[in-house]
Amino acid sequence: MEIVSKILITLVAIEHLYILYMEMFAWETLGRKSFKGALKDELFTPTKGLAANQGLYNGFLAAGLIWSLLISDVIWSTNIAMFLLGCVIVAGIYGAISASRKIFFVQAVPAILALIFLLLR
C-alpha cells in the first residue's frame, strides 16, 4: 500500500505541475483547450494574470506533495500529504461546482484515491 500511495501522490504532484505550466505559461493555448465551453474565448487574454496566480498556487501544492515524499519521519510525511491532498480535494470539488464537473474527476478523484491509499498504509 505504501508504494501505491507514493505513486498516486507523485501523479497528483505531476498533475499540479502540469496545471502550473498551463495556467502560468500556456493559458491562451492549452488553457483555452482545457476550459473550452467553461470560459468564453475572448476572456483568456484578459484573465492571463489571474490564471498565472492560480498556477502558482498549483505549483505550491505540487511542491508540498513532493516534499511530503522526501520526509523521512512517517507520521510527519503522512500529515503533510494528508493536508495537501485535502487541499487538492477541496479545490477539485469547488472547481467542479464553480467551473466544470470535469475538474472533479481530473483533480479531486486522483487526490481522493491517493488519500485512501495513504490512510491504508
What is the end-to-end distance? 5 Å
Count, helices: 5
> In which range does the helix fraction lie?
over 70%
Q: Output the radius of gyration.
A: 15 Å
Mean pLDDT score, rounded? Answer: 95
Count of beta strands: 0
The proportion of residues in beta strands is: under 5%
Explain the layout of strands and helices.
Layout: H1 2-25, H2 27-34, H3 48-70, H4 74-98, H5 102-120
Helix pairs in contact: 1-2, 1-3, 1-5, 3-4, 4-5
Features:
single chain; 121 residues; mainly alpha; 82% helix; 0% strand
Can you characterise this structure?
- The protein is mainly alpha-helical.
- It has one domain (about 1-120).
- Helices cover about 80% and strands about 0% of the residues.
- The protein has 5 helices and no strands.
- Helix 1 (about 1-25) runs antiparallel to helix 3 (about 50-70).
- The radius of gyration is 15 Å and the shape is elongated.
- About 30% of the residues are buried.
- The model has no long low-confidence stretch (mean pLDDT about 95).
